[in-house]
Structure formats: structure tokens, C-alpha cells
Design brief:
Distance between the termini: 39 Å
InterPro entries: Bact_OuterMem_StrucFunc (IPR050330), OMP_bac (IPR006664), OmpA-like (IPR006665), OmpA-like_sf (IPR036737)
Strand content: over 45%
Protein name: OmpA family protein
Subcellular location: Cell outer membrane
Keywords: Cell outer membrane, Membrane, Signal
Helix content: under 10%
Structural class: mainly beta
CATH topology of one domain: 60s Ribosomal Protein L30, Chain: A
CATH class of one domain: Alpha Beta
Number of helices: 5
Main location: membrane
């Protein structure tokens, strides 16, 4: 009974709710959309401090003025002045002509004698003895001696050697050793080298062989004779003495007319410098501004508070009797979370401050020397003195006659008396001239070894053989019983004697030829011809002589100056000197000017709920927009980008519908060409492109649903594998919208 009552009660409640959901007074043929009234929000501006107020400090530097100060730069002192020496005039004698000598002549004598003269000298005549020649045999090398190498091959012998085919090991009584077979390479013939002959290289050369050596022959060049006139001295040349008088010249002689003396020269006082210290500059304090420090922070501002909205359940009630599933769905008041924004702010960590340093702390200067200046003062280090300077003697140039060259004699040659006699003179003696006889040569071709024979080493690799032997892998662990190694005798080839080479001498090939050789060179023999003489008379003369006569010197009287009083000095006082220095004085110390920088604020717009929505209302709409309506959008191939024409289509058809507060679905489709996955992805991107454009125009995204169906909803027969025209495919490439009740 209770079940029946509960069922009736729930039916009455559902009928009442269903009756309230329907629009009142509907008109036939009209369409209505059920809308939930939205919440009304208003924007409210709030101010947020993003940077605090802080102090900004400005340093006004210290002010200075300049003052003058008079200081002594040269102290007083003394200087010396010279009083010159006094002089007088004296007389003295000077030699104006030195003593000299002159010569007197002493006459000579003559005598007569005879002398024999050769009118034709003795000479020799030459007779040619011709050279003697002989013929001899000589050998010409037509092929030089060389060497050939013949290989003596290495001698190989066979020897027996033992190869361990099983190593010595141990066996255990309890745990026997484990063995495995390994393959090793054993050398059965050791590697060796053999020599390979590299033959000598020969080439043919042409040489010139002397078959008759060069020689000489003598040809007599007869002596040449000529007749010439010769002068025979019948009286030899003599000389007579002629006195050459002494030569005098006037020389310039320096005579002292003022004796050497002395004068006093003042050595001026030595002035030194002193570095004087004075207060050149006064320093004020140095102010260093440490600017304010800031840290970064943030503030979270709630721009839209948390709200709630009505939403319909996804599944209808289980006992719903209506054919429309939307009639029996539950309505839920769902929470919408608050929306916040984060604003970056600047916070004051430490305000600006001033650090004061005394003026003398600048640059790490010593406080004792701070602001001090120096100037140089001139002081007397060594007073003025005098030094004696020698004045050289004053001389006068006097002319005097000096004998430059003493008197001598000059020999005047008296020519000999000659007599002309004809005699035969040998102009050129008989000689021989050598006439070269060129050697007679003959070209002979012979073979010459260019490169001697050598050997090159050819490596012969070792011959190996693989032998299988047993090797102990696991060592014994208990009592060991020695097992001797198993060996095997094998043969291998070893090198007894390495390969060598034997040098075979190849004798040179010679050829016997004849040539003419000069056995005795040509020579000459001399024939003596005696000289011819004649007798001539001549005179002999004795020379003249001279004797020396002395000539006395001549003098003259002159005047000269003599110093009677030496020079002295007198003292002169030097006054001190002063100068004006500039120094800097502190007028006003450094100070700080403070400026307050105001805080920086930022205005944020916050949404505030003014009127609560959530009421369900019915609104009349055009019946056409409840069904799918086409948007005339021509997409570029494979593109999901809206063109300007597509945007104009959306502005004209879709924005006016959304202005009434309804919700819409954007549906995009493709044709069947291409894979299903790629077509669905492309249609979803195109539907989302329309949605993004509507959001940019201010439409809330909650009022738009975008779906991409790909090729799943074709409007014609053009499915996969069906041949269709481009016009038929174009009908499937469409983008549509319809009004839905999404609230």
C-alpha cells in the first residue's frame, strides 16, 4: 500500500514540475528555447599597492673657497764681486835675425885616359832538334768491371721438438679438476727471411779515347839584327860646384808683451731647496648614499567571487514515463569557483640611508697628511767663494829673419863629350816557339754499371699449426695428485743457415788500340858567336868643393805688460724673495637632501555579483535555428584558419543569434577523402577556430559547444570508394550551427 502511495505522490510532483517547465500560452507552430537567467555581474575597480613609498637621498657636496698666503721662496744671502788686478809696462830685446852661415867655392881638376868599347856583343844562334815519336799499345775499358749477386738459399733442416698437448696439472681425490679443450697455434716452421737478387743496372755511354796524345814541335825563330848609331863617351860627363846661398824667410815669432797673471772668479753661492708644508686644502665630510633596497612580492586579488549555477544531469530518472528524456532529468545547483589574478608587487626591504666619512678618509690618505700641500723654498747651502783663474801671457807677433836652409852647393852637370860609332846590335835573340799538335781521339762505346747489384729482404711468414690441448680451468681444492704433462713429438722446419748472397766479380772488358806518343820533346842547341870591340879616348874630371863662413844674429828692443797687484773680491748682500700661494679652505660641509618617492598603486578591475540568476525562462525563437544551419565558409585545403570572408559570414549570421542569450553548437564536417582520423581532427580544428573567433567577440565560452564530426555524417552517397564529382564532395565539406539549451 505504501508503495502505491509513494508512486502516486512522485507522479503528482513530476507532473507539477513538468507543468511549471512548459511555457505558458504557447502558440501553435512556434518554437521555444528554455533558458536560465544568467547572473548579473558588474565591474568594480580596486587599488593595489605594487611599490611602497621610500626615501631618495641626494648628496650636496662640500663647498670650498680659495685663500692666498705669502711664503719665503729664497732666503737672504751674500754674493762676491771681483776687484781686478793692476798692471805696468816693461822693455825687453827680441832676436829679429838669427845667426847663420855662408859657403865659399874651392875649384877642381881634370885628367885624360883611354877605354875599349864593344861594337858588337857576343851572341848565340839556335838549331832545332826535332821531337821523337813512338807508337805504343794501350787498353781501353769498353765495359767496366762490375759485380753480380747470386742467391745462396737458406739451408733448412728438420728437428724434433716436443709440444705440450696437455699441460701438467693436478687431480684431486675429492673434487677433480675441470678441464676444457682449447685450440692453440703452434709454430711448426719458424719465420725467416730470404734474399732476392736485385740485378745491377747498366747503361751504354760514349767516351772519347786519346789514340794519339797531344804533343809539341819547335820551330826556330831566327835572331833579328839591326845597325844603329851609338854615342861613345870620349869625355865623361862631369860637374862643377855652384854655391847655392842660404835661404832666409821672415817668420812670425810670438813675444810676451804681458806676462801671465791670475784673476779671481767668483764661485756663486750654492742654493738648495727645502720642501715646506702648509695647509693647502681643507676637506669636508664625504656623504655616501645607500639607496633603498626592494624585494619582489605578489598579491592575489579575487576578481570574481565563487558562485553557483543550475545544471541538468546527464542521465534521466529511472522511472521517467516521458518519451523526451530531457523531461525527467535532475537540476543541480553547481559551484563555480572564484577567479583570482596575481599581481607582482615591490616591497621596501630597507630605506635609503647616508654613510658619512670624514674628508681625510678619502682614498685611504693618512689623516696627518690630509689636505697638506708643499712648496719649494730656496736657501743658501754653500756661501759664495772665489777661485783663482790663471790669465795666460799676452804675446805680440814679431817678424824676424830666420835661415830656413843653410848654404849648400849645387852640382851643375857638364855633359859628356861623345862620338858616334856604328855597331851591330842584337834586337831580338834567336828563340823557338812551341807549336801545339792536338791529340787524336776516337769515340769508344762501353758499358758502365750505374747501380751495383743489391739484395732485398723478402719476409717468409712462419708456418703455424693448430694443436688441441687440455688446460686446467678449475684449480684443485683438496689433496693433490700430480699428473705429468702429456707431450707429443712433432717435426718442424727451422732455418739452419739464413739466406746470404755471393758476390761474383765480373772483369772489365778491355780493347787494345794504338796511339802515337812523343818520346822526346823537341829542343834547340846554341852556337856561340864572339863579340867585336874598338878603342876610344876620354877625359876624367875631379869635382869642386866649398867651405863654411859664419854670419852673426841681429836683435831689436820691445815693450811688455807686467801685473803689479793681484785681483781681490768684495761682498754684496742678496735680499730674500717671497711668493704668494693659493690654498683651499672648506666653506660649507657636505649635506644630504631627502626626497620621498610616493608609493606606486595599480588599479585592478574586479567582478562583483550584482543580481543572482538561475531562474528558468522560456523564450520564443525561430524554428529554423533549432535545426542545423549552414555557415557559408570556404576553408582552404587542409587549413583551419578563418578568412576575412568567413569572419564576415559569422558576423552576419551567428552573432545576432547569440545576442539573445542562447547557447549554440558549432558543427564542422569533411568529405570522405583522406583517413577518418585525419578528417575528424581537421573538422575539430575548424569548429574550434569558429569558437575562438566568437570568444574574441565577447561571447562567453560556456555558451558555445564545438564538435568535429569528420566524414561520419555525409549528406550524399560519396563515401569511401565511391566516385563523385567535386560538387558532390563540396556538399559534405560544411560548417553548421544550431541553438541548444546548454544551461
Amino acid at each position: 500500500m505504501k508503495k502505491v502511495l509513494l508512486t502516486i505522490l512522485s507522479f503528482v510532483v513530476c507532473s507539477a514540475v513538468f507543468a511549471q517547465d512548459l511555457p505558458t500560452n504557447p502558440e501553435p507552430g512556434k518554437c521555444y528555447v528554455r533558458c536560465v537567467t544568467p547572473d548579473v555581474w558588474v565591474n568594480q575597480d580596486i587599488t593595489v599597492q605594487v611599490a611602497p613609498a621610500y626615501k631618495k637621498l641626494k648628496v650636496v657636496p662640500a663647498q670650498y673657497r680659495t685663500e692666498n698666503e705669502e711664503v719665503v721662496i729664497q732666503s737672504s744671502g751674500q754674493e762676491l764681486s771681483v776687484v781686478p788686478a793692476q798692471y805696468e809696462t816693461q822693455t825687453f830685446e827680441v832676436v829679429t835675425q838669427e845667426a847663420s852661415q855662408r859657403l865659399e867655392k874651392v875649384a877642381g881638376s881634370t885628367d885624360t885616359t883611354t877605354e875599349e868599347i864593344i861594337t858588337q856583343p857576343a851572341y848565340q844562334e839556335l838549331s832545332v832538334v826535332p821531337a821523337k815519336y813512338a807508337t805504343e799499345n794501350f787498353e781501353v775499358v769498353s765495359a767496366e768491371a762490375g759485380q753480380t749477386l747470386s742467391v745462396i738459399p737458406a739451408k733448412l733442416g728438420t728437428e724434433n721438438f716436443e709440444v705440450v698437448v696437455q699441460e701438467a696439472s693436478q687431480r684431486l681425490e675429492v673434487v677433480p679438476a675441470q678441464y676444457e679443450n682449447r685450440t692453440e697455434t703452434v709454430v711448426v716452421q719458424a719465420a725467416y727471411t730470404k734474399l732476392e737478387t736485385v740485378p745491377a743496372q747498366y747503361e751504354t755511354r760514349t767516351e772519347t779515347v786519346v789514340v794519339q796524345s797531344a804533343g809539341q814541335r819547335l820551330e826556330v825563330v831566327p835572331a833579328k839584327w839591326a845597325t844603329e848609331n851609338i854615342e861613345v863617351v870620349v869625355q865623361p860627363a862631369s860637374s862643377r860646384v855652384e854655391i847655392v846661398p842660404a835661404q832666409y824667410e821672415t817668420q812670425t815669432v810670438e813675444v810676451v808683451v804681458q806676462e801671465a797673471s791670475q784673476r779671481l772668479e767668483v764661485i756663486p753661492a750654492k742654493w738648495g731647496t727645502e720642501t715646506m708644508t702648509y695647509k693647502k686644502q681643507e676637506y669636508g665630510s664625504t656623504l655616501t648614499v645607500v639607496p633603498a633596497k626592494f624585494t619582489s612580492g605578489y598579491q592575489v586579488i579575487e576578481v570574481k567571487p565563487a558562485t553557483a549555477k543550475w545544471g541538468m544531469s546527464d542521465t534521466p530518472a529511472a522511472d521517467c514515463q516521458s518519451s523526451d528524456p530531457n523531461d525527467c532529468r535532475y537540476w543541480c545547483y553547481k559551484n563555480v569557483p572564484a577567479q583570482n589574478i596575481t599581481i607582482n608587487t615591490t616591497e621596501l626591504a630597507s630605506d635609503a640611508q647616508v654613510i658619512t666619512k670624514p674628508g681625510c678618509d678619502q682614498g685611504g690618505n693618512n689623516s696627518a697628511d690630509c689636505g697638506m700641500g708643499t712648496y719649494t723654498r730656496k736657501v743658501v747651502q754653500t756661501p759664495a767663494t772665489t777661485r783663482v783663474i790663471d790669465i795666460p801671457a799676452v804675446t805680440k807677433t814679431v817678424k824676424k829673419t830666420v835661415m830656413v836652409t843653410p848654404p849648400t852647393t849645387r852640382v851643375v852637370e857638364i855633359p859628356a863629350v861623345t862620338k858616334t860609332i856604328k855597331k851591330t846590335v842584337l834586337v831580338s835573340p834567336a828563340t823557338t816557339r812551341v807549336i801545339d799538335i792536338p791529340a787524336v781521339t776516337k769515340e769508344v762505346t762501353r758499358k758502365v754499371m750505374v747501380t751495383p747489384p743489391t739484395t732485398r729482404v723478402v719476409d717468409v711468414p712462419a708456418v703455424t699449426k693448430e694443436v688441441t690441448r687440455t688446460v686446467m680451468v678449475t684449480p684443485p681444492t683438496t689433496r693433490v695428485i700430480e699428473i705429468p704433462a702429456v707431450t707429443k713429438t712433432m717435426k718442424r722446419t727451422v732455418v739452419l743457415e739464413p739466406a746470404t748472397t755471393r758476390v761474383s766479380e765480373i772483369p772489365a772488358v778491355t780493347k787494345t788500340m794504338k796511339r802515337t806518343v812523343m818520346a822526346t820533346p823537341p829542343s834547340t842547341r846554341a852556337i856561340d858567336i864572339p863579340a867585336k870591340t874598338t878603342t876610344v879616348r876620354k877625359t876624367i874630371i875631379s869635382p869642386e868643393t866649398t867651405r863654411v863662413v859664419e854670419v852673426p844674429a841681429v836683435t831689436t828692443t820691445m815693450k811688455r805688460t807686467v801685473m803689479t797687484a793681484p785681483p781681490t773680491t768684495r761682498v754684496i748682500d742678496v735680499p730674500q724673495k717671497t711668493t704668494t700661494l693659493k690654498r683651499t679652505v672648506l666653506a660649507s660641509d657636505a649635506r644630504v637632501e631627502e626626497v620621498t618617492v610616493p608609493a606606486v598603486n595599480k588599479t585592478v578591475t574586479k567582478e562583483v555579483l550584482q543580481k543572482k540568476g538561475g531562474l528558468t525562462t522560456w523564450k520564443e525563437v525561430d524554428c529554423k535555428i533549432v535545426e542545423y544551419n549552414d555557415l557559408n565558409i570556404n576553408w582552404n585545403l587542409g587549413s583551419a584558419t578563418l578568412t576575412n570572408a568567413a569572419k564576415a559570414e559569422i558576423d552576419a549570421k551567428l552573432l545576432p543569434v547569440l545576442a539573445d542569450g542562447v547557447s549554440v553548437e558549432i558543427a564542422s564536417h569533411t568529405d570522405s577523402r583522406g583517413s577518418k582520423e585525419s578528417n575528424r581532427a581537421l573538422s575539430e580544428r575548424r569548429a574550434q577556430a569558429v569558437t575562438n573567433y566568437l570568444i574574441s567577440k565577447g561571447i562567453n565560452s560556456s555558451r558555445i559547444v564545438s564538435n568535429g564530426y569528420g566524414e561520419s555524417r555525409l549528406t550524399n552517397r560519396c563515401s569511401d570508394g565511391v566516385s563523385c564529382t567535386e560538387r558532390e564532395h563540396l556538399a559534405n565539406r560544411r560548417t553548421q550551427f544550431r541553438v541548444i539549451n546548454a544551461n
